[in-house]
Design a protein that fits this description.
The complex is a heterodimer of chains A (114) and B (115).
Chain A: E1 5-7, E2 10-13, E3 19-24, E4 31-37, E5 43-50, E6 65-69, E7 75-79, E8 88-95, E9 104-105, E10 109-113
Parallel strand pairs in A: 2-10
Antiparallel strand pairs in A: 1-3, 3-7, 4-5, 4-8, 6-7, 8-9, 8-10
Chain B: E1 3-5, E2 10-14, E3 19-21, E4 24-26, E5 33-38, E6 44-50, E7 56-58, E8 64-68, E9 73-78, E10 87-97, E11 100-105, E12 109-114
Parallel strand pairs in B: 2-12
Antiparallel strand pairs in B: 1-4, 3-9, 5-6, 5-10, 7-8, 8-9, 10-11, 10-12
The chains are: A mainly beta (114), B mainly beta (115).
Chain lengths: 114, 115
């Protein structure tokens, strides 16, 4: 079956513009995660959706960042008024139920803010 | 605070030799521990996890990890390294905070296996 897909694979934008990043999780996975990986750095947790529960937004770095998950499936991460420090690879992962289980990662979206 | 540390930025090993990638953790309660690998130009892949049970956990590609509660460690090991094992390895621990579970990842260790 299909794995986690993300689009676009690359995004170049100008400082101050808004961007939307999309994640399609594996069908049937109730948990969805967003992470950020800066060059040469580890993974930084951003947000976690689990079923119909309120998401854990504790990792979002500022109020310019938001995410939603429609219909318990596709998720969109939105960054408003992008800054150069937002440049990173944004990774999405999904898992069956919660964090006890293996997370399947997408290929990521490389965001470059000029 | 709950955290995970990978003390080595890079590990160099000759092909055929055993390898160890170190990980230590700090977490309240029983730890749930994971190893993931990121090959060049590929996404992260799950290797193995420890939830409960035997302290020695076996995973994909011949890797294993040993949970040591007294040393709060979860080191990744392989008896005989391959050049194809060269990749970035991440240790992660499940953290419970504010009623939510999430994974906290270490900074990663780059493994270089030389022919």
């Amino acid at each position: 079956g299909a794995g986690v897909s993300q689009s676009p694979s690359n995004k170049v934008t100008e400082k101050g513009k808004d961007v939307e990043l999309r994640c399609d999780p594996i069908s049937g996975h109730t948990a969805l995660y967003w992470y950020r990986q800066s060059l040469g750095q580890g993974l930084e947790f951003l947000i976690y959706f689990q079923g119909n529960s309120a998401p854990d937004k504790s990792g979002l770095p500022s109020d310019r960042f938001s995410a939603e998950r429609t219909g318990g499936s596709v998720s969109t991460l939105t960054i408003q008024r992008t800054q150069q420090e937002d440049s990173a690879v944004y990774l999405c992962a999904s898992s069956f139920q919660g964090t006890d289980n293996e997370q399947f990662f997408g290929p990521g979206t490389r965001l470059t803010v000029l | 605070a709950q955290s995970v540390a990978q003390p080595e930025d890079q590990v160099n090993v000759a092909e055929g030799n055993p390898l160890t990638v170190k990980c230590t953790y700090s977490v309240s309660g029983n730890p749930y521990l994971f190893w993931y690998v990121q090959y060049p130009n590929r996404g992260l892949q799950f290797l193995l996890k420890y939830i409960t049970g035997d302290n020695l956990v076996k995973g994909s590609y011949g890797f294993e990890a040993e949970f040591n509660k007294s040393q709060t460690s979860f080191h990744l090991k392989k008896p005989s390294a391959l050049v194809s094992d060269s990749a970035l390895y991440f240790c992660a621990v499940r953290s419970l905070s504010g009623g939510y579970n999430k994974l906290i990842f270490g900074a990663g260790t780059r493994l270089a296996v030389h022919p």
